[in-house]
Design a protein that fits this description.
Strand content of chain A: 15-25%
Shape of chain C: elongated
Low-confidence stretches of chain A: 364-374
Helix content of chain A: 25-40%
Low-confidence stretches of chain C: none
Number of strands of chain A: 13
Order of helices and strands of chain A: HEHEHEHEHEHEHEHHEHEHEEEEHHH
Structural class of chain C: alpha+beta
Shape of chain A: globular
Radius of gyration of chain A: 21 Å
Largest interface: A-C, 58 and 42 residues
Distance between the termini of chain C: 51 Å
Radius of gyration of chain C: 20 Å
Strand order of the largest sheet of chain C: 3-2-1-4-5
Structural class of chain A: alpha/beta
Mean pLDDT of chain C: 92
Order of helices and strands of chain C: EEEEEH
Number of strands of chain C: 5
Oligomer: heterotrimer
Largest sheet of chain C: 5 strands, antiparallel
Helix content of chain C: 25-40%
């Protein structure tokens, strides 16, 4: 595949790894680099990147998995919507297994709710078009990457006058959460790998404070393994040279200014919420968006009475500490014991992008030694 | 005899309507001497069987695939080849199949006939006979259009010992071709994801290929068809049963470009996609090249490859050397693979 | 929520609704291209474009020059490493 295979080239990885080793030797101390985005976490495990890096580098897996950080109360709301008579509830496949306080959407479907997986919000709108006598709700979740798609879908529904289609909006925004992590006194980070696909929408400007105020290097990174290694190398180079900048490794996809059309659609449809609840992290100010009242007809929260009950995270679960990089997944008390992909207790075990599920699935909590194989 | 357009509950009543339907649809399509008497059971001589080997193999499977017809196959062909393969991977020569059909009221008789004819054609191609059967009709909604259950009997030649627990360190791991085609074809055919692709199911009978492999590599330890759960699941089963570790090489794993694209779009891992004409073979290193050559000489093994090897290590652990030089664990799946966007 | 993959726009399906068909390694799907068109790059000129697709929307036009530049940096790194290795190899140990 063009733009994919050439960024999975092992030969190029070897020289990058050698460069990284030299930089680490030059810096001469252990380094904690957070990859913010769950897509990066997935690639890191999928390609076994951790095992290729010098031991001084610790990759801290950040909060950038929107499925993982979805609080149980919101899943309960989904189940309540799905259980309404005549309802067709549509969702991305990722959300099917996220635990609510009583059941997940897969169980709700088994119990008789009409829950359908779709690839695109556009397909959910298509279902609404085909079923004018039924209500269709799409479970809108995701970061800024996904917001334009649901915003454009709402605009399309509005333009066509489709009355039976709405979105249950759970979109969240990554920047306030990165700030919350930086403000947390508990942890020390040396740099960020920035979320590539979020940045393709919002551009680089929103991260400026990370370099200027928090003096933290950040490199917006692509998702292929060479992208991640190169971004890491760029972060290390900043550290070695005493620079703090927002750099863009993923320039083939991310324009520094972001995507104007996407941002226009998002601004037209959504406005910031005062605060939004994150599983494992608690409530974070201005970290979520809601649908503007102008489009209330397409807002499931405005259309239906929802339980809206806040459910505490399971007590034993240490997702918050993992998300903040304080402990590694395998150090959690319940990891691999009462919390497994089969019976996820914590959010991070739910999605394949979640650090714990990735550890469990691809790494089993062990650091595989493959340096000999290189 | 008048031909009715759809199956009704009358067809399940045991009376004339049922008899006509069975005759018109199944008996005609399956026709063979053992079926023809239409007794409650098929009867076959033990002496003929004993000439072929010293043990019987017996297997059963159910087929509930949706849609019933998909690129490269249909539920009938799948049922016949699936049962043939379940016998063949045990080293058996497949001989006789049964077929039980559960029909949903309202099913088109023409469609049922097409499925039955596809089963008959598949059986003839595989050299097996469908010798006994059963038909039930259930009310609308009690099943989804058509379910098939097939059982099969085969004979294992004396001295042939294949088993998932027989893998030994040093053995090579082979597959007989491109992986994941069936899973991708079915997902595509369902239409939920609105993807168009030329991918067809790999649905095929493997006993011919298996005989060729066993002739070329008589020391072959284990064979298993990589159906639901894909090769990842089979490898995990073999590693666990043999108490060994298995390592595969991503770069050597044969995948069609379209299946790769399909998986990239939906965030799926092709190692877990179902196959219906692919098997995993564990072969001693000394015979691996001979087994590979035998596979590649066969029509259902042209893209065969040696994808990995068995070694002493963490027992039951399957790992993969990624194209990138890293190593990852290839675990059993918890549930079904769901398309993901993150 | 970041799964995004490159695909090529092969045909415009509905110019008004900005719908087009993309091809990813021989697999095709209809996507919305509203985010990659503007006055300078109208719908009709999109055929042949490589775009990054996320949940059925083309979210960015892939910049071929930037991709080549990234790969060139990686190539140069490799060459620098090779030289370094060669220098090390020629030194008496």
């Amino acid at each position: 595949m063009k733009y994919v295979d050439e960024f999975r080239d092992r030969a190029k990885a070897l020289s990058l790894v050698a460069e990284i080793e030299q930089l680490v030797a030059r810096i001469g101390r252990p380094l904690q680099i957070m990859e913010v985005c769950g897509g990066h976490t997935h690639s890191i495990f999928r390609y076994g990147l951790e095992g290729m890096l010098p031991k001084e580098i610790e990759l801290v897996h950040g909060p950038g998995c929107p499925v993982c950080v979805l609080p149980m109360g919101r899943v309960d709301d989904c189940v309540a919507i799905a259980n309404r008579p005549g309802m067709i509830f549509t969702t991305f496949g990722d959300a099917m297994r996220v635990p609510g306080s009583k059941k997940n959407l897969l169980q709700a479907k088994a119990d008789g709710a009409d829950v359908r997986m779709v690839y695109s919000p556009m397909d959910a709108l298509g279902i609404a078009r085909k079923n004018p006598d039924r209500e269709v709700v799409f479970f809108g979740l995701g970061f800024e990457t996904t917001m334009p798609s649901t915003a454009l879908t709402i605009l399309q529904a509005h333009a066509e006058g489709i009355q039976n289609f709405s979105i249950f909006c759970n979109h969240i925004t990554i920047v306030p959460t990165m700030k919350a992590i930086l403000d947390s006194q508990e942890m020390h980070l040396d740099g960020f790998l920035g979320p590539g696909h979020v940045s393709m929408v919002i551009g680089l400007d929103p991260y400026e404070f990370i370099a200027s105020f928090y003096k933290m290097p950040m490199v917006v990174a692509g998702f292929e393994p060479l992208d991640i290694l190169q971004s890491l190398w760029m972060v290390l180079r900043q550290i070695a040279e005493g620079r703090c900048e927002i750099e863009n490794q993923y320039a083939r996809v991310v324009a520094d200014s972001g995507n104007a059309q996407a941002l226009t659609a998002v601004g037209e449809v959504y406005e910031l919420r005062e605060h939004f609840e994150w599983r494992g992290l608690g409530s974070i100010n201005k970290s979520g968006v809601k649908i503007r009242s102008k489009y209330a007809q397409h807002d499931a929260e405005a259309k239906y009475a929802l339980p809206g009950v806040r459910i505490e995270d399971p007590k034993a679960c240490q997702c918050g500490e993992v998300l903040k990089g304080l402990i590694r997944p395998a150090q959690c008390k319940v990891f691999g014991k009462s919390c497994t992909p089969e019976t996820p207790l914590g959010a991070l075990m739910v999605s394949s992008e979640g650090a714990c599920a990735a550890y469990y699935q691809y790494g089993g909590g062990i650091k595989l030694n493959v340096r000999a194989a290189l | 005899m008048t031909r009715v357009p759809t199956v009704t509950l009358a067809h399940g009543g045991g009376g004339k309507a049922m008899k006509d339907l069975i005759h018109d649809v199944f008996v005609e399509a399956f026709d063979n001497p053992l079926l023809r008497p239409l007794e409650d059971q098929a009867r076959f001589g033990m002496r003929e069987l004993a000439l072929l080997g010293d043990r019987l193999a017996f297997t059963t499977d159910s087929y509930v695939v949706d849609p019933l017809f998909f690129p490269g196959g249909d539920i009938g062909k799948l049922a016949v080849f699936g049962t043939v393969n379940d016998l063949a991977v045990g080293g058996a020569v497949p001989l006789y199949l049964s077929c039980a059909a559960i029909l949903e009221e309202g099913l088109s008789v023409d469609l049922l006939r097409r499925v039955a004819q596809s089963m008959g054609a598949a059986a003839r191609l595989a050299g097996v006979s469908i010798v006994t059967g059963d038909t039930k009709v259930v009310p609308r909604g009690a099943c989804d259009k058509l379910f098939l259950c097939t059982s099969g009997v085969g004979v294992i030649r004396a001295g042939r010992e294949l088993g998932a627990s027989r893998a030994r360190p040093g053995d090579k791991v082979l597959v007989n071709g491109l992986l994941g085609d069936h899973g991708a074809a079915i997902l595509g055919a369902r239409g939920d994801m609105q993807l168009e692709s030329p991918i067809e199911s790999d649905c095929a009978p493997l006993h011919g290929l298996i005989e060729a492999v066993l002739a070329a590599a008589p020391g072959t330890r284990a064979l298993r068809d990589a159906t639901r759960g894909g090769i990842a699941t089979v490898l995990n089963e073999m590693a666990a049963a043999s108490q060994v570790a298995i390592s595969i090489d991503e770069a050597a794993t044969p995948l069609r470009a379209e299946v790769k694209g399909f998986c990239e779009i939906l965030g799926l891992d092709p190692l877990y996609l179902a196959n219906e004409g692919k098997l995993v073979a564990i072969v001693p290193a000394a015979e691996a090249q001979a087994a590979l050559a035998a596979m590649r000489a066969h029509q259902y093994g042209r893209d065969a490859a040696i994808i990995g090897e068995v070694f002493e290590g963490e027992k039951g652990r399957v790992t993969m050397q990624t194209v990138f030089g890293g190593t990852r664990i290839v675990d059993m799946l918890v549930g079904e693979q769901l398309p993901r966007i993150c | 929520m970041c799964l995004g993959i490159p695909g090529r726009i092969v045909q415009i399906d509905d110019a008004a609704k900005k719908l087009a068909t993309v091809d990813v390694s021989g697999v095709r799907r209809q996507v919305n291209i509203a985010c990659v068109v503007d006055e300078a790059h109208p719908v009709a000129s999109c055929v042949g474009d490589w775009v990054l697709i996320h949940v059925g929307f083309a979210m960015s036009r892939i910049d071929e020059k930037e991709a080549a530049l990234t790969l060139q940096i990686l190539r140069e790194l490799g060459e620098a490493q090779a030289e370094l290795e060669a220098m090390r190899g020629s030194l008496p140990s």
